[in-house]
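Hey forum,

I'm writing up a methods section and want to include a predicted complex as supplementary material. The small molecule is magnesium ion. I've pasted the protein sequence and the SMILES. Can someone with a working setup run it? I'll credit the forum in the acknowledgements.
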Amino acid sequence: MTGHVELLSAADLHASYGTSHILRGVTIEVSRGETVALMGRNGMGKSTLIRTIMGLVPAARGRVTLAGVDATRLPTFARSQLGIAYVPEGRGIFGTLSVAENLDIAARPGPDGENAWTINRVLELFPRLAERRTNRGDQLSGGEQQMLAIARALLTNPRLIILDEATEGLAPLIREEIWSTIRLVRETGLAALIVDKSVSELARISDRVVVLVKGEVVHEGPPATLLADQALMHRHLGV
Amino acid sequence: MSLAGFLAQLLNGVQYGLLLFLIASGLTLIFGVMGIINLAHGSLFMVGAYVAFLVTRAVGSAWLALPLALLGGAAFGSLLERGLFRHFYRRDHLDQVLLTFALILLFEEARSILVGNDFHSVAVPAIFDFSVPITAGFSYSAYRFVVIGVCLALAVALFFWIERTRMGAIIRAAAEKPEMVDVIGIDARRVHMTVFAVGTALALTAGALAAPLYSVYPGMGDGFLIISFVVVVIGGLGSISGAFWGALLIGLVDTLGKAYVPAVAGLAIYVLMAAVLLWRPTGLFGQRG
Ligand SMILES: Nc1ncnc2c1ncn2[C@@H]1O[C@H](COP(=O)(O)OP(=O)(O)O)[C@@H](O)[C@H]1O
Ligand SMILES: [Mg+2]
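Reply by user p_vandermeer:
Happy to help. Structure tokens for the complex are below, copy them as they are.
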């Protein structure tokens, strides 16, 4: 058991885009070493929740605590420096930079000074990136870009990694490769908050699932409970 | 016209182009990373020129103006960014235009109060006040060679910094996806301040180098600003290599045009700009789409 040291705690978060109220009081927690799956159909506010946690969307109300620090008013880079890595939907790699530069500008020791992930180590994890070091980011395939995005996130030596649709739009084989990497990374003790379309993969990997509907948490618990509840699965996840 | 005369014009064109590059590179870099079109960039060039004038008046030679413009420019740029520009990145373009236009008026007013409205020539530093013999019938100003050399050295340093260093990679990343630079834990405010400091230092240095060639006078930044815009547009907004080739092209076309077809030379660079934009709407080195 990892204990209940909270790395991420968002309490009663509200956020809007203009006049559309998207998050309506979301409370979510991720503890040290824990893997939490964030589920819900398209447009339910999963990405908005993550972006609010990262400070990319302003919180209209509520509180974000990261590694014990009140981060509600902190700029995004300071949240990253508290040990929160974020791999966005669409990957967010720098297409005009080489693979090596993408990695180099992200690399730094973690918030406790630990330096478990080095450029060499992520290149061992993703040998394909090693072959593509001198290529520009926009010359990579979708799968390679996703690997680069994950590698870049790991190089910040985070305590928690947030993955938003990391397997979106990838071929099944590549998708499998990404999942096995996520499992491997998880085994190092890194906490994770994961959004993905694949309910079965998420159920297999996560300690806990949180289901979001129209900006509100409607279900929370161990994956087995969710899988056993056919009605819930059908109504909120469409499976 | 003689071959010697043509060579002299060619060198003048290169020298003018390289000077334009120092101004245009800062303009394009600041636009590329912060999205602000700094109309007061020409005024910064003017400040550099007046620094050279004042230094010459005080110590008799413009020499000292060069390090002063470079280092003082960087410090001044940092202050401007911190105190003013930083608060305008998220504002709309009209606010940004008003800010930078107001700065032009402020700089002109300050110039008027501090040094007056007269036209002043600035002496070429004595050690470079001679001509270098090239061939039997042709010699060329040593000071212009110095200007070419300093500009080239700064251009090489700038390219190296942008293309080969970690800070340069961060700057390119910030121009592409500013949000993701923050996401990986880099304080974008430091990046913005650095970019602004370098752009300002280059503009002041260009002014200090230019003073002995073009004299100093009220509003001298305006013409250089407009031509630098033409350079930036031809090269492609945000592109440093574009600014380099664009500046050389404009420098040569303008100089050779004025020497050989003075009747239409004033229009030549604008026709060139229109032609480039028709052929490549995003400029020579601009990103497509
Ligand atoms: N930048 C934006 N501006 C306005 N509305 C947005 C923006 N991004 C997302 N939305 C809206 O917010 C809602 C939640 O979107 P999102 O958080 O992306 O959902 P999910 O990630 O669960 O698919 C959707 O209705 C979407 O249309
Ligand atoms: Mg989403």
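Some notes you might quote in the supplement: The CA atoms of residues 257 and 265 of chain B lie 5 Å apart. The interface with chain A takes residues 166, 169-170, 172-173, 175-177, 179-188 of chain B (CB under 8 Å).
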